[in-house]
Amino acid sequence: MENAPQYVIEMLHITKEFPGIRANDDITLQLRKGEIHALLGENGAGKSTLMSILFGMYQPDAGEIRKDGKPVTIQNPNDATALGIGMVHQHFKLIEVFTVLDNIILGAEDTKLGFLKKKEARRKVMDLSQRYGLKIDLDAKVEDITVGMQQRVEILKMLYRDNEILIFDEPTAVLTPQEIDELMQIMKSLAAEGKSILFISHKLNEIMTVSDRITVLRKGKYIGTVETKDTDKQALSNMMVGRPVQLEVNKSEAKPGEVVLQVKELRVPSKLHKKDAVQGVSFSVRAGEIVCLAGIDGNGQSELIYGLTGLEKCSGGSITLCGEEISHTSIRKRLKNISHIPEDRHKHGLVLDFTLEQNMVLQRFQEPKFQKFGFIKQDAVRSYAEVLIDQYDVRSGQGPITVARSMSGGNQQKAIIAREVDRDKPLIVAVQPTRGLDVGAIEYIHSQLVAERDRGKAILLVSLELDEVMSLSDRILVLYEGEIVGELDPKKTNIQELGLYMAGAKRAEKGGGTE
């Protein structure tokens, strides 16, 4: 064992350019066997690009990759799989109409005389799911399961292929606190079995909890590698952003005005089962306050927002916005008074093949400012987009003409927030607005939301980040299995109590206060 190579993977002097941007600029990353190595950096720092090179999705312009000390060429993901490298992508690569089992074995099918050996495959997946505590319904269709469950499918896909080097790209961006804890445990047990893990994240809490070493990238350059036990969150955020970052939210007391949104006995059907996903929910949001819907993913938050914004039809109850009943009006009519930052930025937030400037005017192109006689005023659209890009620090290779698909997830998110806040509507519905954002961007978005609140906007926030729920909201409503089980004051509660409500272990009495 004396001369065994110290590193299972080495990426040496990797450089990669895209039009208008050097995503990786001479980066070196070394992964030891059996360690959890975190890759930390702002949105657009080049983390995903670097991992995509290791997984064979891009070819580097310069530099080399070694496995167990020997240089290797990875032309495509199949080469990576053959080398035992697996990856869970930030935006999952699953086929929605297939079952969980079919997604797991897709591309690695075991056949006999051309027939699929599904029994053996099922047994192997069941064994893996039990061994690593990844409980999942193998016969459910992917489109019907929560994002947390989809992530388990991605992890099982890697394990099914017997991968030894596991890349997790922002794995917790879509998970609930409980699921995050479970994932951390899973990662630790995988590392204990000798698997080597590369973990991309910009959530400092998680990195401190789970990693052994941390490599920091900033604007495509390598900043340094540190041992987790020798550093802290403030030092890491300085390395990552290049300046001290405010990790707490600064805000004054809320001064709620009149009711902007009134929801009464609202019911929204579920796509998954017979009963409604939202069961007779009533609440109000006033001008000048941030009301947060907290809960574990899959307890009806998404359906409630779909019902409010018109993406789903409600099966009962009423929604009154600015004094007008809107439960049966069209989406365009509703959006006259709602800014909506949706939970799925790809499905409902952006048209990925449009440019950034086109995405910025999606709901406004018919305004006189942007069109004349039905023709779009290109110059007006461009200068408008440039102002927002500058104001929100949306980083992209080619400014307003960048295709949305080519931007990093965090910058896509910033673009949506810029567009929606600037539409200046009385109600802002923000669903996980900081999902997938780094500390610098989160600090900015939080300050924007608080500023909008202070300008008299009513803000309905849906968040799975408990720290965000506690620090940003003025009132917290907890949703459990489609019902509101508690209304809490963030100043008088704590994360433990909030967690009990979210898990359904504690609930307020109907009609009475929370005891």
From TrEMBL:
Gene3D superfamilies, per the entry: P-loop containing nucleotide triphosphate hydrolases
InterPro entries: AAA+_ATPase, ABC_carbohydrate_import_ATPase, ABC_transporter-like_ATP-bd, ABC_transporter-like_CS, P-loop_NTPase
Annotated ranges, domain ABC transporter: 9-244, 261-506
Membrane topology: Peripheral membrane protein
CDD domains for the chain: ABC_Carb_Monos_I (cd03216), ABC_Carb_Monos_II (cd03215)
Cellular component annotations (GO), alphabetically ordered: plasma membrane
Compartments (UniProt record): Cell membrane
Pfam families according to UniProt: ABC_tran
GO molecular-function term, one example from the UniProt record: ATP hydrolysis activity
Name this protein carries in UniProt: ABC transporter ATP-binding protein
Species for this entry: Evtepia gabavorous
